[in-house]
Amino acid sequence: MKVPSSSLATFLLGCIVSSASAFTPSSSLTSRTPSSLVKTPSFYKRTTTLSSSPTSDAENEIVEPVGFGQPTELPDSLQDAAEIAAQSSATFAKYQGGVGMTRCRVDFDTSVGDETYTTLKSSTEFMQKYVSALCYALIPGAMERRQDEMMRLATAQAQLTAMMQDKEGEVDEEKRQELLDIIAEGGRDPKADNTWKGPVARIYFPDEGSAALARRDWNPKGPPTEALVPPCVEFSSCGGVQMQDITNDKIILFFCPKASEAEFVEQILYKTEAKCGENLALTVFVNPLLVDMGVTGFGMAGRMLRERLIDDLTSIYYLRTLQWGALTRIWPNQFTVWQEDEEEEG
Predict the structure, then answer these.
(1) Is 35 exposed, middle or buried (0-12, 13-18, 19+ CB in 10 A)?
(2) What is the pTM of this model?
(3) Is 318 exposed, middle or buried (0-12, 13-18, 19+ CB in 10 A)?
(4) Is the peptide bond before 220 cis (omega within 30 degrees of 0)?
């Protein structure tokens, strides 16, 4: 196969191309995904569609989400991919009732076989954006708090500007300092207790070192202008002694769990589901690799693990870039293979 065009190369190296016109969907698959779920790209030729549609719950008369049986379009950017994955996850949780044992998986791999960085490292930025969007969609009070902070910040900036432009009146230094403090805190009230006391989204990392590094760099307790995730996010690890309070956990996410942590993952999952009960809205496995030839093998141990845990995970979002195209899926749409169309101009 020839070297990919500049548009495809940008997609493979930069995660996803923002705009191009060198690829078009084939005429045999002209149905389009609703714009509320994903933006429509025009730079790939779809060649294969694989069906994977869950069965609706007729007894509860739940209306199926829009998209069953439709092909999946590609996202426009990393941010777009994360928001789409979060929206699909939130829709799935609500479709399942939003309580109890609602488990799913998200797979995001744009490395194109490049093993320079680990899966955890290469998908960290996606995880940050995905967790933020998911928290705003499912954690009660998270979006409202962020909106209040943004409104308070905009108001403080406007008042400070008006104060500095008023050359005739005397500047109230106390009021000025109060406004500066609000701006420095990114909209938070510096005099109020800003500790998050609501439901929690807990991320389990493969080891304590990764969890500690994320706790420092993602900075959920910091000002909104510096924090990479909302304040409702907590960090834990799969190994070691589990001392954290999980009674308020609303969402749990296992970030890149490996086969060596499979036993700990199961223990944490079953314990959390039993303790939180209906308060637990969703469990997400992000880029899981729980079956490995060198650890679990593909014998009895691997098959039992698949039967107990892996096979029941619904694929909510899948994106994998390849040398010749990409494979993607957004629940409840179909898995769809996209291939470069070299005959298309652009």
Answers:
(1) exposed
(2) 0.75
(3) buried
(4) no
Pairing of strands 335-339, 249-255: unpaired
Q: Strand 249-255 relative to strand 233-237: parallel, antiparallel, unpaired? A: unpaired
Burial of 55 (0-12, 13-18, 19+ CB in 10 A): exposed
What angle do helix axes 78-95 and 124-138 make, rounded to 10 degrees? Answer: 40
Helices (H) and strands (E) in the chain, counts: 9, 9
Q: Do residues 89 and 317 make contact, with C-beta atoms less than 8 angstroms apart? A: yes
Q: Look at strands 249-255 and 200-205 and give their pairing.
A: parallel
Averaged pLDDT, groups of 10, the chain, 346 residues long: 39 38 32 34 37 38 59 85 91 76 87 77 91 92 89 89 77 83 85 86 91 91 87 87 82 88 84 85 88 61 68 87 86 84 66
| CB neighbour class for 123 (10 Å; exposed up to 12, middle 13-18, buried from 19) | buried
Give me the sign of the Cα torsion angle 177, 183, 187, 190: negative
Distance CA 220, CA 174 (A): 29
Q: Please name the residues in contact with 158: beta carbons below 8 A apart, sequence gap of 6 or more.
A: none
* Cα 280 to Cα 254: distance, rounded to the nearest angstrom: 14
pLDDT digits (tens, 9 = 90+) for 122-163: 889 999 999 999 999 999 988 998 998 899 899 988 988 888
> What secondary structure letter does DSSP report for 110?
-
For the chain, the helix, strand and coil percentages under 3-state DSSP, each to the nearest 5: 35, 15, 45
Q: What are the C-alpha distances in Å from 10 to residues 27, 135, 321, 324?
A: 25, 30, 11, 13
